Amino acid sequence: MKLSQLRNLIVVADAGTVRQAARTLNLSQSSVTKSIQQLEEGLGVELLHRGAQGVVPTEAGRALIARARLVEAELRHARNDIDNVLGAGVGEIRISASPTVATGLVPRTVLAFKRARPRVSFLIQEGVYPDVLSAVRVGDIDFAICLVPERPRDDTLHFEDLLSDRLTPAVRVNHPLISARKLTLADLVGYDWVIYRRSRTGWDVFEQTFVTNGYDPPRATIECTSFACTLALVESSDAITLVPSHLFAESWRPRSIVPVLLDSGMPPWQVMAISRAPHELSPVCLAFRTSSSAWPDN
C-alpha cells in the first residue's frame, strides 16, 4: 500500500470518474486506473464500483478512504512542522467559511496573518455549519469559521467565539419597505422569502424567526443553496431574505441590498472558529489561532 495509491483513491472517489481524477492529478487515466487496481490486488478487495456513470466507493473503499484522509492530513501537518523547523512561518492552513463570513471577516483575518507570515499559504473554501464538522474532525480542514445558531455540544472539537450577531431581513435598495417605519415581523409575512439553505439549519433558523415571535412561517418561499443566487433573487424582486447583521458592517458589503430594521426580536447567531484540539494542530495553525492580529475584537 503506497501513499500515492491512497491519494489517487481519494481523488477518484471525490471526482466520481477516473477521467476527472486524472486531470486533477495531472496523470494519465491508465496510470490512475493501474494504481487503483494494484491497491485492490494488494488488499484483496474491491474498493470502487465501476459503472457507466462513473465510480462510487464500496463499503471497504469508504472505510479505507476515511483512514487515508486522516493519513493525508497528518502528513500535511508533518510537512508544516518540518517547514516550521526549517523556517518560521512556513506551512499551509485550510479554512472553510460560511458565505457571509467569507465576504469580510475571513479575508481581513487571512491578510492580517499573511502580513506577519508572508510565506504561509492558505486554501479557503465555502462551507456551512454543521456540514463542515466531519471535515474538521478528520483534518481535511484546519478551521471552520461559521455562523452557529447555538453553542454546539461536541467534546471532540474546539470552539472559539469570534463575534456575536443577529439576523436581519434584507431587501433590494428601492424596495417599498425601505420607506416604512416601525415595522414588525408581522408586516413581512405576506412577502415572498428567499431562504439561503446549504443544510437543515437554514430552514430551522428561518422557521424559528417567525415561531418565536408568534407567527406561522410564510408559505411563499424559494430555497436556494447558492448565496450569490440568493442575493440575485432578492436584488431582482420584492422578495426578502435573512442575513447576519455583520454583513452590513463590513468594509465590503452588498451594494444592492439593505437591512430592514424591525422592532421584533431576531434570533442571535455566533460566529465561531471551529478546529481540532490545540494539541492536534500544526505550529502554523496554532500561530493562526492564537494570533492577536488575526481575529477581530469581540
Defining traits:
10 helices, 39% helix, 298 residues, alpha/beta, 9-stranded mixed sheet, two-stranded antiparallel sheet, globular, Arc Repressor Mutant, subunit A
Q: Give the N-terminus to C-terminus distance in angstroms.
A: 48 Å
Strand content: 15-25%
- Quantity of strands, as a count: 11
Low-confidence stretches: none
Calculate the mean pLDDT score and round it.
86
Question: Over the alpha carbons, how many angstroms does the gyration radius reach?
Answer: 23 Å
The CATH class assignment of the largest domain is Alpha Beta
Largest sheet: 9 strands, mixed
- Give me the number of helical elements: 10
Q: How many structurally independent domains?
A: 2
Shape: globular
CATH second-level architecture of the largest domain: 3-Layer(aba) Sandwich
Order of helices and strands: HHHEEHEHHEHEEEHEHEEEH
SS content category: alpha/beta
CATH fold name of the largest domain: D-Maltodextrin-Binding Protein, domain 2
Helix content: 25-40%
Tell me what you see in this structure.
The protein is of the alpha/beta class and 298 residues long. It folds into two domains: 3-66, Arc Repressor Mutant, subunit A, CATH 1.10.10.10; 89-298, D-Maltodextrin-Binding Protein, domain 2, CATH 3.40.190.290. The protein is built from ten helices and eleven strands. The protein has helices at 3-15, 18-25, 29-43, 59-86, 99-102, 105-116, 133-138, 200-211, 227-235, 283-290; strands at residues 48-51, 54-57, 91-97, 120-126, 143-148, 158-172, 193-196, 221-224, 240-244, 257-259, 268-275. The strands form two sheets. Strands 3, 4, 5, 6, 7, 8, 9, 10 and 11 form a nine-stranded mixed beta sheet that branches. Strand 7 (193-196), helix 8 (200-211) and strand 8 form a beta-alpha-beta unit. The longest helix is centred in the N-terminal third of the chain and has 28 residues, at 59-86.
